[in-house]
Each structure stands twice: as C-alpha cells, then as structure tokens.
C-alpha cells in the first residue's frame, strides 16, 4: 500500500510503498482510509519530542482518520497502526459512524478541535445557559470551534480575542458578540476586557494562549478594591501558544473569585473521554453535517505529504491529507 512513511525522527514522512497492516487478533479489523488530519501531536511524535513517540522505524505516521469499514460504513477511528496510509488497523467497535452529509476531509479534521473545545466547555468550565464566555485565542482551529460550541451549549455572550483580523471577523460571523484584537497595546486590550466585564460578567475563559495574553486577562478580571465583591470567573487553560509561563500575583487571586483549571489528557477522566466518544463528538459530526458547525481545512493528496508536512497552514485551518 501507499503510505506516509517516517524513516527518521525529526524528518518529514515520505510517500512510498509500505507493507499492508496485519490484524493481531479477532478484536481488530482493517479500515480503508479516506482522509486523515495532521496535528501538532502527529508532528511531535514524528519529531521524537512526545512521550508516545515511535519505538521502531520505519513506521506509518498518523494517529486517527476517517475511512470505510469492510461493509462500506464510513467511520472515524483512532488507529492501532498509522493512519496516513491507504489501510490501517483499528479496534473492533471502537469507532464512530459518520452521519450523511459530512465530507471525509472535514470529519478527519474535527475530533482534535472538539477535544480542545467541547471538553473544556462541558467538563472543566461546566458551562451554564446564559453565561458569558471569553475565548482567548479564538483565531485558531480549536478556538473557532470553541466560539461556535459555546453558543450552541447556551452561552448568552461570547467574546473572541486573537491576533488575526480576518479570523476575528470570521469568529464574529460564527457567533462571537465581541471581538478584541491582541495586536493593540496591552493597556487597550485590558481596558476593553474590563469594559465588557463590567457590562456582562465574564463567567468562563477558555484560554489557548497563556503567557502574556493570559496575564492581561488576569489584570482585567481582578478585583477593584477593599469594598469590591466579585462573582466567580473560571479560567480553563487548554494551550500555551503564547508561552508556557505567566506572572501570577497572590493579590490577583485574593482580590477576586478567580478559579484556574487545566483541560487536557491528564485532567480529564476515562468516563469523560467515554462521553466524548459516545456523545460530544457524534453530536459535533452531526452539527457539521447540518452546516451548524463550521471548520476550514487545507487538503493535500497523500503523495504530497513530504512537502506539506512542515509548510505553514493557513490561519484557522487544519491540514488534512486525502488518501483515497
């Protein structure tokens, strides 16, 4: 079969022939791959910088994908073997059937973005109807999905921040009530957040940036003096695109009812991941099929994988490899 074959850690996989995958027991089956996305996790594993990296090379890259079962049923599944290939091994029954009306490329790109948005909103923030949600870093793939899902889950007001003007306007088209450019001076960003916070209390922050943008948020949300009584603000950090550290004053936490949580593999339970697979992700697939949830992709054919692997992807889009 043709596949994206990783020969050396730190190098892009190459398009070439590779032996067909073989099932190891009767609890596995073969899937014919249609499309598979390339995510930061895929690249980190290929670079040898992730703990779940490859133990033996050469190997087929890719951790999940969309394809057809033997009976032609279209599904999304995580691979036992690499998924950037014409065929892959998956565990029997551990897949999600795709609804009619969804294309394979978009379906392949969606799961990672839903993990980073729906899990944070539902399980960590525990979003409530009518609440106000600020998505910090709403111009990336996952941030754009978070804006849309926050509205779908019942947020009354959604605020989107980011550096890309086009993507901020896109966020507004898709449901954001306020947009704030992080290209402005820090003082102006803080002033705008404070102004909105005074008008409609910000209940939840879903943060993909951390670093300086998160520090500005904390400054904007902190208390205003000895007679100030605040309502709770829950900040959920999902990523650290702007830096892994930020200064945190004890006074900031003592002056406000601010709760800081993380959302990632280590902070979510097996029960919550089961709910993701049985409820949240199937629901998101259905929303895409009904054109109620929007995601943009950059699609390349499998034979172009080596050139596409390290090329910058368009802002707000996920790289998807079309296999067949």
TrEMBL record:
SMART domains: PKS_ER. This is Alcohol dehydrogenase. Gene3D superfamilies: Medium-chain alcohol dehydrogenases, catalytic domain, NAD(P)-binding Rossmann-like Domain. Residues 10-321 form the Enoyl reductase (ER) domain. It holds the Pfam family ADH_zinc_N. Transmembrane segments: none annotated. InterPro entries: ADH-like_C, ER, GroES-like_sf, NAD(P)-bd_dom_sf, Zn-ADH-like_protein. SUPFAM superfamilies: GroES-like (SSF50129), NAD(P)-binding Rossmann-fold domains (SSF51735). PANTHER family: SHORT-CHAIN DEHYDROGENASE/REDUCTASE, ZINC-CONTAINING ALCOHOL DEHYDROGENASE. One of its GO terms (molecular function) is oxidoreductase activity. It comes from Niabella ginsenosidivorans.
